[in-house]
Amino acid sequence: MPPVHRRLHINLDTTANLAPFLEPLVPGVSPAVSAWLKGLKEVELHLDRWAFDLSDEGFWWRPKEGLNPIGGLVRHITGSSLRLLSYAFPQELPDWAKKGREWELQGEPEAKEVVEARFREAWARLLSAFQSLREEELGQEVPVGTQGLKAPRAHILHHLVEHAQHHAGQIIYARKLLG
After folding, report:
1. Residue 164: which of 19, 37, 40 has the closest Cα?
2. Is 144 helix (H, G, I), strand (E, B) or coil?
3. Which end of the chain is more exposed for a tag (fewer CB within 10 A), N or C?
4. Angle of CA points 16, 22, 28, to nearest 5°
5. CATH code for the domain in which residue 157 is found
């Protein structure tokens, strides 16, 4: 057996080191919702590895003037995810999440601990909402934004996970540039 296969075999025998997408389905939810939960878990793992161990200086470092700092990307993942969740399931947003994209990405730096605490609180809220989803709710059309447009709840939730993954990738790249 080639060495790659042996390494893969070893990793598959231990669930502690598995990427979330390799884990079993989440019990009690549809396979699609299970996949979204795994995607959210992966975002959290990426932020733990690539963002939350930085100093405040590293957290707010910009690779180039006008580009988004890691801290701004974390704020944006958090705020936009809560806004998208509020379209899927109408609910009140915290005041900071109402400030929007420009503040999240380009606003004044804050203590990293504040940004991380908001992320953790928001992620617990998201995971709970996703875990309570019923199959029949996924196809329901709900209003999105202020223009009166509607979209199926499943599309909004799928976009939420994709959007968070997209920006988590930017964080990984920025962190690698930082060194």
Report:
1. 40
2. strand
3. C
4. 95
5. 1.20.120.450
Alpha helices, H only, the chain: 3-13, 31-50, 56-59, 70-88, 101-106, 112-131, 153-178
> With the CA atoms of 75, 79, 84 and 88 taken in that order, what torsion angle do they form, in degrees rounded to the nearest 10?
130
Tokens of 142: 């709900």
- In the structure encoding, which two tokens stand for residue 13, read together? 């025998």
- pTM, two decimals, is 0.89
* DSSP at 133: -
The token duo for 119 is 């992320």
Place of tokens 């199926």: 152
Tokens of 104: 């999240």
Q: How many domains does the chain have?
A: 1
- Domain membership flag for residue 11: no
pLDDT averaged per 10 residues, the chain (length 179): 34 62 95 97 98 98 93 98 96 94 94 98 97 96 91 98 98 95
